[in-house]
Amino acid sequence: MEYKIFEGDYDKRLFYSLLGKFFAEREYRKMFPYLVNEEDSIWIVAIENDEVVGFTIFEEKKSKIIFDYTYAKAADIENKLLNDRFTLTKDINKPIEIDLLRESSNIKYWLDKGFNITKETKNYMFLRKEAIKNDR
């Protein structure tokens, strides 16, 4: 298994050759209705035999980090992707926000990672983890 990170000025042709189906195919459009490759998106992609078997996305904005979609064909791949995302963001001193579908998300996982629920709707839960305060 190979993991690639796409951020900044990367090869868009390679990116879309790997991930294009997630943007175009009906099956994935239903799973990820708001999937967009923003300019500041950072993608961690799991690849096996030239096929994407998982990915996770986050964005670093001016005042916060936004965790976005995660997809994986197996739980061990999902765990590795989530851990890698936390590793890549651990030194960025900004709050982290994530919106979760209530019916298909493990809310306990996020609460155990230090997130707090900031808002709830019928279908979504909105969580936030505050930045670590530095006394320098």
Radius of gyration: 15 Å
Decide which structural class fits the backbone: alpha+beta
Spans of at least 5 consecutive residues whose pLDDT stays below 50 are: none
Q: What is the typical, i.e. mean, pLDDT?
A: 91
Helix residue percentage? 25-40%
Net shape: globular
Please count the helical segments. Answer: 4
Name the beta content range.
35-45%
Please report the distance between the alpha carbons of the first and last residues. 41 Å
**Secondary structure: number of strands:** 7
What does the model show?
The termini are far apart. The mean pLDDT is 91. The protein has a seven-stranded mixed beta sheet, sandwiched between helices. Helices cover 29% and strands 35% of the residues. It is built from four helices and seven strands. Helix 3 links the parallel strand 4 (65-72) and strand 5. It has helices at 12-24, 26-31, 75-89, 107-112; strands at residues 2-6, 41-48, 51-60, 65-72, 96-101, 116-120, 124-129. The chain has 136 residues and is α+β, with helices and mostly antiparallel strands.
What key phrases describe this protein's structure?
4 helices; 7 strands; 136 residues; seven-stranded mixed sheet; 35% strand; alpha+beta
